[in-house]
Automatic annotation (TrEMBL):
Pfam families xref list: TctA
InterPro entries: DUF112_TM
Organism of derivation: Paracoccus nototheniae
PANTHER family per UniProt: TRICARBOXYLIC TRANSPORT PROTEIN
Listed transmembrane segments: 21-46, 58-80, 107-133, 145-162, 169-186, 198-217, 259-281, 316-340, 356-376, 396-421, 433-451, 471-491
Keyword Transmembrane applies: yes
Keyword entries, A-Z: Membrane, Transmembrane, Transmembrane helix
Protein name: Tripartite tricarboxylate transporter permease
Record domain DUF112: where: 18-440
């Protein structure tokens, strides 16, 4: 074992590997901070360069870029209320409101340090329990994935505002959008209205940019046209990490819970950091002593979700390395790179190339620690950029929105989706409807429908089959309890509200 670790260390601490990781990390920071440019895109853009690299520098570039991009998505979320990556959308409202209260240092400092801690937890779980967790993930069938998707959709109950009815309407809008495109079972086009561009469905990234970024730009333009006082851009003086130590000391359970949840969800093929962040935020709100503060600039949910989405990065490598099954879109690219380099991921890689596996573990630890200094520089640079006046900044933000929407679809139709959903998001928020549940419905709607139809076909229409397997039964009971609690809560509010109306 000592010889293997020494060989792995020699591979990792080569100057070329370290420089590659540093440059790829800086690139990942830049891509993640641009609205609409995801961690997957950062990795995909690096793939052509990996053709000319040895295996270890290639893996170092991918690990560094993906981890940095996940954190960097928090920066525009806090500064502009525009999530840089989908994994940042779950807690963008809290980040932005904290920044507007003058607590931008605490918000981004907490994001950065907790992201680092969550990433390290994910790595250590990857090292200690990779085979066991991968085997657990492989036990999931369509029944378990259906309940997992249902559990994720139930998060809308917890992440929404104080009005569950409006949150439910927003969630249904997102689910309706998820039905656009080819039917996953029959392949028949649905709700495409003859548009070939809609056969692939409503693209998630242009939709997210429209609902969050473009809607915010529209509000800014309206304020300028009405000569209203411009919105004060978030300001924060002093050290970036001022007050962050107190946050970490107050919420150690949240960090541990979010990190473990992120690792477990990341280990499930197809789940990834996006779903991990949403579910961790929802669980945090459910068990918080002050759930009413969530969405108003509360740091507690931010701690859970930041830890979860970075822990999921390491978790997603578990099925990829152990069984050659991608945990998310990033590891799907990684598997392709490994095959390209002549190394087949799977159980045999632990026997044939153990030094490679331990080199990957070391790269994870190194790049996660590298996140702190690189993140500090990225935050400083981004904050200086926001000293630009709103009349200049808004067109720049709009330009980034257009580039992000176009880059994802490589067509003007992505920009059309962004414009349409930007208008929808603005109208909804002006009338008190939250937009976060729309994103949740759009993310999980396809998986929810696909797994339900697959399960019904396998069971011959028997709904009891959804509870036959132990893990599926456990998840199903959790979902039904959550729905029951939500219905009872709504009924109690209705009963309490009646006397108040009579009194008026």
């Amino acid at each position: 074992m000592a010889d293997i670790l020494w060989q792995a260390a020699l591979l990792v601490f080569d100057p070329r590997v370290l420089i590659t990781a540093l440059l790829a990390g800086a690139f990942g920071m830049f891509v993640g901070a641009m609205p609409g440019l995801t961690a997957t895109m950062a990795v995909a853009l690096l793939v052509p360069m990996t053709f000319f690299m040895d295996p270890i520098p290639a893996l170092a570039a991918i690990v560094a870029a993906s981890g940095m991009a996940i954190f960097a998505g928090d920066i525009p979320g806090a500064l502009l209320r525009i999530p840089g990556t989908p994994a940042s959308a779950a807690y963008v409202e809290d980040s932005y409101r904290l920044a507007m209260k003058g607590q931008i240092n605490m918000a981004l400092g907490t994001n950065l340090l907790v992201s680092c801690i969550g990433g390290l937890v994910g790595v250590f779980v990857l090292i200690a329990a990779a085979p066991w967790l991968a085997e657990f993930a492989l036990r999931f069938t369509s029944y378990e994935y259906f309940w997992l998707a249902a559990l994720g959709l139930s998060c809308a109950i917890f992440i929404a505002s104080a009005d569950p009815l409006k949150a439910g309407v927003a969630l249904l809008i997102g689910l309706a959008m998820a039905t656009v495109g080819l039917d996953p079972t029959t392949g028949v086009p649905r709700f495409t209205f003859g548009q070939v561009n809609l056969l692939a469905g409503v693209e998630f990234i242009p939709a997210m940019i429209g609902l969050f970024a473009l809607a915010e730009v529209m509000r800014g333009v309206i304020r300028l046209n009405h000569k209203a006082p411009p919105v004060t851009m978030p300001q924060g003086e002093g050290a970036l990490f001022k007050g962050v130590g107190g946050v970490i000391r107050r919420h150690p359970k949240n960090i541990v819970r979010g990190s473990l949840m992120g690792t477990l969800i990341g280990a499930l093929p197809g789940a990834g950091a996006d779903i991990a962040a949403w579910m961790a935020y929802a669980v945090s709100k459910r068990f918080s002593k002050t759930p009413a503060k969530y969405g108003t600039g509360h740091v507690e949910g931010l701690v859970d979700a930041s830890a979860a989405n970075n822990a999921a990065v390491g978790g997603a490598w578990i099925p990829a390395l152990v069984f050659g099954i991608p945990g998310d879109s990033v590891t799907a690219i990684v598997i392709g790179v490994l095959y390209m380099k002549g190394m087949n991921p799977g159980p045999t890689v632990f026997l044939q190339n153990p030094q490679l596996i331990y080199a990957v573990f070391m790269i994870f630890i190194l790049t996660t620690l590298m996140m702190v200094p690189l993140g500090w520089v990225a935050v400083k640079v981004a904050r200086q950029a926001l000293r630009v006046p709103s009349r200049v900044l808004l067109p720049i933000v709009l330009a980034f929105c257009i580039v992000g929407a176009f880059a994802m679809t490589n067509s003007v139709f992505g920009i059309v989706i962004m414009l349409a959903l930007g208008l929808l998001g603005w109208l909804l928020e002006e009338n008190g409807f939250p937009v976060a549940p729309i994103i949740l419905g759009l993310v999980l709607g396809g998986m929810f429908e696909r797994m339900f139809m697959t399960s019904m076909i396998k069971s011959g229409g028997d709904l009891g089959a959804f509870f036959d397997r132990p893990i599926a039964a456990m998840l199903g009971v959790c979902v039904l309890l959550i729905w029951g609690a939500a219905i009872l809560g709504a009924l109690r509010r209705m009963v309490r509200g009646r006397p108040a109306r009579h009194a008026d």
